[in-house]
Structure formats: C-alpha cells, structure tokens
Design a protein that fits this description.
Blueprint: E1 7-12, H1 17-32, E2 36-41, H2 71-74, H3 79-93, H4 99-108, E3 112-116, H5 117-122, E4 134-138, H6 140-147, E5 151-154
Parallel strand pairs: 1-2, 1-5, 2-3, 3-4
C-alpha cells in the first residue's frame, strides 16, 4: 500500500550535536515537502530549546562508537570542543545552519516546537526557560493528540 505522509511528529530525546541534527533535518525536510511537522523535545533533547544551553551544544565524544575514538580519548579535555568545531565546519560546508538558526528557521516554516511537561517538571523548567519558538509545554497525551493521523518518529 502506498500513500503520502501528511504529518510527522518527531520525538527529540538527545541533547548532543549528533543527536539533534537528524531530527532537525527531518523536520526541515518535511516542511519543505509540505508535510506538517511537530517536534516534541524530551529529557536531554530539551537542551536544544533551553535558552541557556541551545547555543552551546557539543558532540558527545565519550562512548560514541560513530567517532571511532577509544573511550579514554573521548574523555580527554578539549576533545568534545574540537570534534564539535570540526563537525560544525563540515555542516556549514553542506549549507546546514547552526542549531539555534536551524530551530528558528524550522519554526518559521510553521513547524511546532513543544517541550515535554514531564521532563520540564523533572528538571524544574518552565516555558520561560525555553526559546521563544517553543509553542508550549505539553503532556504526552497532548503530544499524541497533535500526532494523531500522522507518523511518529523517535530519534
């Protein structure tokens, strides 16, 4: 059976550089194709929308098998910053904006950005702690209502 996707809801649970770009690229691609997109930031994924953290997202180097570094090397001082800078330059060459700009761009296309209420409560955060593009802090039930009739993607 074939059909078209009309709506996607993407759960963003990782707060690292390499954990945030995939859902942002997917949401941006969905909007470019005219597909409704909502992003639901939960647990450490909320770093992407946290006013004090979203401009300081780093590559996770410790225990990251994709980097092909020994665990001890990933934990050395400065390795995360160097790898982050390296990947930022590579992403820039591919014309991907930095995370703060990407979030703003995606929100400007009409995508919904939402924070998870349970995670916000866990970390003692309120809507005021999040960037202006966050529409609301919502429960899982409210997320399911938004996602109804569409695809849910976990990242």
């Amino acid at each position: 059976m074939t059909g078209t996707i009309e709506k996607v809801s993407i759960v963003v649970s990782k707060g690292s550089f390499e954990g945030l770009y995939p859902p942002l690229i997917m949401a941006n691609g969905a909007r470019a194709e005219g597909i409704e997109a909502n992003l639901f930031f939960t647990f450490f994924g909320m770093d992407a929308i946290h006013k004090r953290r979203y401009e300081h997202i780093k590559v996770s180097t410790v225990g990251n098998p994709g980097l092909h570094l020994a665990t001890f090397a990933g934990g050395l001082p400065g390795v995360s910053s160097v790898m982050t800078h390296y990947l930022e330059r590579k992403m820039e060459k591919l014309d991907f904006p930095p995370i703060p700009e990407f979030l703003e761009m995606i929100a400007d296309t009409g995508a919904g950005l939402y924070a998870c209420k349970a995670s916000a409560d866990l970390f003692e955060l309120t809507k005021d702690d999040f960037i202006d593009q966050v529409k609301d802090v919502i429960t899982v039930g409210e997320f399911y209502e938004l996602a109804a009739g569409g695809q849910i993607i976990f990242t």
